[in-house]
Amino acid sequence: MDEFDRNILNLLQADNRLTQDAIAERVGLSASAVRRRIEKLRKDRVIIGDVSLVDPDRVGITVITSVRFEREDRDAYKRFEELMMAASEVSQCYMVSGDVEFVLIAHMRDLAHYEEWMASYLLDEPFIQRAHTNIVYKRVKYKTAVPVSK
């Protein structure tokens, strides 16, 4: 990946509706060169999708939940990962180091929806020792762009 690719990625992360002509003008390449580079970035899975971002505050509440397991168990990890992949409410799930095994970010219609979701996905699993949830009341910073630099 060279500087042209990095510049293209930064521009696309800011606005993926930019035309190839507009990108070409900004990075100093031809539109066909930009097209080829974008195709290669997609083929190499550097670009993994093109989406419209929805303001989570406009559609419900956001919760951040830390999950601690009773004990470390490969089958439990696999089961939990499958549960989170199936949960449409979960937008992000991370296996982390430290005092908990997983941290997830989920979006719910309201608190009743969260309570129902918690009962369905977490409370009945015997390998989960504890789930600690924070309800987001103010979003201070929200960026989806990944810094792409030298």
Write the topology of this structure.
Elements: H1 3-14, H2 20-27, H3 31-43, E1 61-69, H4 74-86, E2 90-95, E3 102-108, H5 111-123, E4 128-135
Antiparallel strand pairs: 1-3, 1-4, 2-3
Helix pairs in contact: 2-3
List keywords for this structure.
150 residues, alpha+beta, four-stranded antiparallel beta sheet, 20% strand
Concise structural overview:
The chain has 150 residues and is of the alpha+beta class. It is 39% helix and 20% strand. It has helices spanning 3-14, 20-27, 31-43, 74-86, 111-123; strands at residues 61-69, 90-95, 102-108, 128-135.
- Summed over residues and divided by their number, the pLDDT gives a mean of 94
Measured as a percent range, the helix fraction is: 25-40%
Q: Please count the beta strands (DSSP E, at least 2 residues each).
A: 4
Radius of gyration: 20 Å
State the low-pLDDT regions, or none. Answer: none
Q: What is the spatial order of strands in the main beta sheet?
A: 2-3-1-4
The dominant shape is elongated
User: What's the order of the H and E elements?
Assistant: HHHEHEEHE
**Based on helices, strands and strand pairing, what is the structural class?**
alpha+beta
Question: How many helices does DSSP assign?
Answer: 5
Biggest sheet features: 4 strands, antiparallel
Quaternary class: single chain
| CA-CA gap between termini | 9 Å
Approximately what portion of the residues adopt beta-strand conformation? 15-25%
